[in-house]
Amino acid sequence: MSSPGSESSTVAGGTRAAGGAATRDPGPRASGATTAPAAGAPPLLEAVHVRKTYRLGRVQVPVLHDASIAVRDGEWIAILGASGSGKSTLLHLLGDLDSDDDRGPGRRRPERSARTQEGSERPAERAIHRGEVRFLGTPLSKLSLLARNRFRNEQVGFVFQFYHLLPELNVLENTVLPAAVRTSLRSGWHWVSIAAVGAAIGAVLAAGLGRLLLGELVSSPGELAIAGGLGAVAGAGLLPLGVVEVRSLVARFGSARRAMVERAMELLGSFGLEHRLRHRPRELSGGERQRVAIARALMNHPRVLLADEPTGNLDARTGQEILDLLAEQHRQGLTIVMVTHDPVVAARADRQVHLRDGRVIDEGLADQA
Ligand SMILES: Nc1ncnc2c1ncn2[C@@H]1O[C@H](COP(=O)(O)OP(=O)(O)OP(=O)(O)O)[C@@H](O)[C@H]1O
Ligand SMILES: [Mg+2]
Question: Which of 150, 221, 235, 295 could be cross-linked to 267 through a Cys-Cys bond (beta carbons 3.0 to 4.6 Å apart)?
Fold first, then answer.
């Protein structure tokens, strides 16, 4: 866990990492399991002083209170806690699937100080910070919308508590999905730039031709319509250029699609699911569904896997098979944050922390203190 004292250096690390942290190409994973992170390097992923309160009308359900956790590159952490203690909530915040109280709707500024009944400030409570989740030291709230989408899609793999496979898609299609989203995210700016350039050319042509033909800048709606029509006719002259552009995009999507399918088949094959590629989720056993969910989460080579009760709905033997599979990924360098209520399952991780009263308690650190 990060202490208030370590916070300033972490923020400094975040500034250095800003801009590139969440958008860089994942590339091959470093063998984090065996390589110690550079001294002073920020954690791979951390939640710092986050709070989360669910609001149901007038009812407030406080779940997390000043919860902090730092995940180092190459670690396998288990988060233990009773049912309802907020394990899934914390995992969703780490994966940027939900907002904490300081960023979400109805957010409030953190209390700067608290007063005792006598009216004096309690020093220990002056230090309550604004909560945030950071990736490689960069607060997610500082990233652009596109960079955050890419963080969720490329840096994090999420295994949900109840699989969340799409019932209409078969095993292969479910697995390929994150890569298809990545392709569309990456090409998003391409389309925006084409649209912007096209609109600018159209506007210039419309205004220029309108002015030429009408003798002055268009000023009434009728003139605007005529100028717009002329602009559209002129724009049609650019159609051949547009067709060339679209063809090159299709070609790129074609090769990207082949690469996606190959990656998905490789993953599914290594998880023993090669004979289930065309099956729908309802035709699979619980263990098979979980393996598809893990394959989907690994599709984009994430830096960190967030797994919510990955064995929770499975019998003991199938649960062990899933843990063996995670252990193999971890051995290859994958950082894992796993939520469980089962100490036996948690024992497979390198480090266990507990979620209690809305806070993360690292008993290993408490013992050392
Ligand atoms: N969307 C929501 N709206 C309102 N309350 C919620 C919502 N999601 C969770 N909660 C409540 O927040 C608390 C924590 O839920 P969470 O799912 O994080 O617990 P958990 O530790 O994962 O539990 P479990 O081990 O049963 O999965 C629970 O009391 C739950 O009822
Ligand atoms: Mg849960």
Answer: 295
Tally of domains in the chain: 2
Domain holding 341: CATH number?
A: 3.40.50.300
The pair of structure tokens assigned to 39 is 């001294």
- Ligand 1 near 358 CB (within 6 A): no
Cβ–Cβ under 8 Å, residues 47 and 141: no
Q: Which of 51, 59, 63 to mutate to test the pocket of ligand 1 (most atoms within 8 A of CB)?
A: 63
Q: Which atom of ligand 1 is nearest to the CA of 92?
A: 18
Residue 2 has a pLDDT of 37
Query: pTM of the predicted model, to two decimals?
Result: 0.72
Closest residue by Cα to atom 10, ligand 1, is: 54
Note whether residue 274 is domain-resident. Answer: no
219 with 321, same domain: the answer is no
SS3 track for 2-16: CCHHHHHHHHHHHHH
* Per-residue confidence (pLDDT) for residue 104, from 0 to 100: 54
Q: Is the CB of 59 under 6 A from ligand 1?
A: no
Spell out, as residue ranges, where the chain has pLDDT lower than 70.
1-39, 103-129, 184-185, 187-253, 364-369
How much distance in Å is there from the Cα of 88 to the middle of ligand 2? Answer: 4
Q: Is 44 helix (H, G, I), strand (E, B) or coil?
A: coil
Cα dihedral 180, 181, 185, 190, rounded to 10, equals: 30
What pLDDT, on the 0 to 100 scale, is given for residue 369? 40
pLDDT (0 to 100) of residue 128: 47
Of 266, 298, 318, the one marking the end of a domain is 266
Q: Specify whether 164 is located in the same domain as 184.
A: no
Neighbours of ion ligand 2 (CB under 5 A): 88
Residue 220 is predicted with a pLDDT of 64
Question: 61 CB less than 6 Å from ligand 1?
Answer: yes
**Which distant-in-sequence residues (6+ apart) come within 8 Å of 365 by Cβ?**
1
pLDDT reported for residue 187: 65
Question: Is 287 found in the same domain as 231?
Answer: no
Token reading at 226: 């005529």
- Whether 120 lines ligand 1, by a CB cut-off of 6 Å, is no
Q: In terms of domains, do 294 and 320 share one?
A: yes
86 lines ligand 1 (CB under 6 A): yes
